[in-house]
Amino acid sequence: MSLVIEGLSKQYTKSIQALKHISLTVSDGESIGIVGESGSGKSTLARILLGLEPYKEGSVTYKGKLIVPKNRSSLRAYRKSVQMIFQDSTSTLNPKLPIWKSLLEPLDNYKEFSPSFLEQGLTKLEKAEKLLEIVGLDKEMFSRYPVELSGGQKQRVSIARAISLEPSLLVCDEPTASLDMTIQVQILQLLKELQRKTNMTILFISHDIRAVAYLCERMIVLKEGLMVDEFKMADIYHSDRHPYTKALIKAASID
């Protein structure tokens, strides 16, 4: 298994427990959707998986190694393999930097690494152009600033940044929530194509059960910090689905 979560709990205060004994295994190359309404614990789980949030109870193991949030040396190697796409692409791009500089920040942080899909000996600008082409953007866009890009274009830049380190696990936290429907479909298609080409594992966190159904092979349903349902997408309409899952399906009008 690529990722193993066992008995993971996260409590902020005596009255606020964000996660309650979550256990989950994810195989290499698998796409898993994590669904739930606001306050279900989705984003807390994402931050823990990125090493951004500490936890005291349970464990997170990636490729056989225990992930300890405060261990800087182990986190550096882990964060190269695990990248994230956030909901708000605007906040992930420095408004004072041209796109190419923001795009290459991950590679600048791991100078010893060169992704297999980039030729050796490329200049920084050539690397930026190639990354933009991979996510379907005009290579001439590298000199623009974030304010000059649409929401969909900025999210594509964020995806290009995330895949620049050739991660084996990509965590997507509501990556299409702020985009209009047409652009949402384009981003989901792009993620699906990138996964097909690279075999990376995708953890897709969303309140949008339709998006998860399109992209993912398996779905996890969270409610108030508890994992109340887990199933393959082929079994989404099975009679033993949890009542909360059935309510989400009905609300999404996909039944």
UniProtKB/TrEMBL annotation:
Question: Keyword Glycoprotein, does the record have it?
Answer: no
Query: What CDD domains does the record point to?
Result: ABC_NikE_OppD_transporters (cd03257)
Q: Which domain of life is it from?
A: Bacteria
Which processes are annotated in GO (biological process)? transmembrane transport
Q: Where are the transmembrane segments?
A: none
Q: Which residues form the ABC transporter domain?
A: 3-249
Q: Which UniProt keywords apply?
A: ATP-binding, Nucleotide-binding, Transport
Write down the Pfam families for this protein, in alphabetical order. Answer: ABC_tran (PF00005)
One term of GO molecular function: ATP hydrolysis activity
Q: Which SUPFAM superfamilies match?
A: P-loop containing nucleoside triphosphate hydrolases (SSF52540)
**What name goes with this protein?**
ABC transporter ATP-binding protein
Q: Which organism is it from?
A: Mesobacillus subterraneus
